[in-house]
């Protein structure tokens, strides 16, 4: 066995993984050509999708329905630096009054009532609280491929007049025009001062936990 082979065998495996990570990060930065330094992207609402799923629970929860809600009125901005993702920021706003019940999982005759209750002072109270917002405080990124990375976004969500800390896990893909970010998170209505709606004397009620699934397209700002 040669001296060269012996030296190679003594290389600590953690250093090998570190070298791979550095190489991947470098390749990722190169793939973001044209996005060197701080880059500003604007949310493309027409090509973004936010779906809220509200389940049901209670003694006779099976008799209720799962409501699917779309949030089309999203706007916002993403700023980032491929060489230092912790300098990134995310700012999103939603028009609460634009939320719409899709009807999936609901009898057609129930949709108008579900829509009315959702926007009323029984739930969102959109007349008093017309905006839903999220603003990041810190962003952590882990590159997976030269054009894809995992994100952990720590920030504050404002809903129903209350602001609470929230951590969102997402996957981002870079392209020539910007990026697409996908993820899912859960929030509790009670943490924002809302009381889950009940029916049938409380034997049927919606779950406190609400699931939000999103696909956000962010394009280069002109």
Summarize the structure in words.
The protein has one domain (32-220): Lipocalin, CATH 2.40.128. A hairpin with a 2-residue loop joins strand 8 (148-159) and strand 9. It is α+β, with helices and mostly antiparallel strands and 222 residues long. It has helices at residues 3-9, 13-31, 111-119, and strands at 39-43, 49-57, 67-70, 74-80, 89-95, 100-101, 131-145, 148-159, 162-175, 178-188, 198-199, 204-220.
State the gist of this model.
This protein is α+β, with helices and mostly antiparallel strands and 222 residues long. It is built from 3 helices and 12 strands.
Instruction: State the order of secondary-structure elements, H for helix, E for strand.
Output: HHEEEEEEHEEEEEE
- On the 0-100 scale, what is the average pLDDT? 79
- Adjacency order of strands in the biggest sheet: 1-4-5-7-8-9-10-12
Cα end-to-end separation: 61 Å
Low-confidence stretches: 1-33, 57-64, 199-204
User: Can you summarize the main beta sheet?
Assistant: 8 strands, antiparallel, barrel
Shape type: elongated
CATH architecture: Beta Barrel
Strand content: over 45%
Number of domains: 1
Structural class: alpha+beta
For this structure, what is the CATH class? Mainly Beta
């Amino acid at each position: 066995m040669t001296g060269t082979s012996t030296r190679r065998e003594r290389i600590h495996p953690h250093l090998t993984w570190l070298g791979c990570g550095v190489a991947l990060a470098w390749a990722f930065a190169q793939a973001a050509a044209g996005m060197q330094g701080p880059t500003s992207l604007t949310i493309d609402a027409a090509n973004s999708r936010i779906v809220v799923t509200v389940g049901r629970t209670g003694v006779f929860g099976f008799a209720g329905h799962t409501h699917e809600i779309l949030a089309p009125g999203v706007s916002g901005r993403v700023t980032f630096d491929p060489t230092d993702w912790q300098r990134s920021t995310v700012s999103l706003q939603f028009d609460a009054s634009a939320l719409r019940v899709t009807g999936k999982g609901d009898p057609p005759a129930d949709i108008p009532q579900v829509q009315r209750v959702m926007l009323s002072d029984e739930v969102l109270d959109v007349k008093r609280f017309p905006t839903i917002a999220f603003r990041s405080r810190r962003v952590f990124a882990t590159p997976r491929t030269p054009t894809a990375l995992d994100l952990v976004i720590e920030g504050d969500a404002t809903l129903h007049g209350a602001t609470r800390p929230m951590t969102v896990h997402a996957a981002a893909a870079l392209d020539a025009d910007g990026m697409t970010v996908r993820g899912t998170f859960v929030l509790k209505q009670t943490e924002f001062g809302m009381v889950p709606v009940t029916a049938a004397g409380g034997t049927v009620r919606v779950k406190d936990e609400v699931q939000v699934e999103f696909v956000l397209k962010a394009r280069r700002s002109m």
